[in-house]
């Protein structure tokens, strides 16, 4: 007799437009937003992220009606920031953040996923700035992240969760640790993306064990180690790497998600675990079967 997998009831599973090949507010190669909502609900998910602002309706009343009749709820919005550039970019950053934060709050969500800006263009590979931050830039990054966390909490009641990401300055184990050690836990939490962290050489289980109190949100994702080896050897930018299939359908890649989920469950806190399989661009009929199979796999992991 096979032992049953324990249910981790404090982990809530969702998906995101990213898993349907959506990276931009409007792109003819992307699945239309109504189809995304139909398919993500049919695949068995109850929670979604907003994705790129403007892809889903930005009118809260319209979005609430569209999600509600499909049994969907919003877990978070997403913003992109270049906070290492210092106070001089604050006004521009806040103009971008405020509309997204307002919609996120209006939809009843409590999290804002913050993705640092890329040091090289994710499609062309053009180097935009130095890959390594100076001490002054690190100080700006951490201080401005705390400022963002404070402002978002005070004005919108949201908590920011900073997302380590390939081709950004918050990527490797060393840089993630440095960022966490230099920021206030009351203001800044982490969105641990298991795929991006593995892409950059990190161990998600060890991160959860070491910085468990800082884990505020999860993105569940895997990388294909063979493709990743080619990407690293060839210094391939993130966008083309995705086109090569570096992010793959679980459980075919790394890290193994069962121990990650077990480590997260051991924290005994409420967590969202949002499936993200980067697939831009992709054929419109490709995402749904993957999403359905992935939801089944996660149920076998107890969530």
UniProtKB/TrEMBL annotation:
It comes from the Bacteria. Pfam families: AP_endonuc_2. SUPFAM superfamilies: Xylose isomerase-like (SSF51658). InterPro entries: IolE/XylAMocC-like, Xyl_isomerase-like_sf, Xyl_isomerase-like_TIM-brl. Residues 37-286 form the Xylose isomerase-like TIM barrel domain. This is TIM barrel protein.
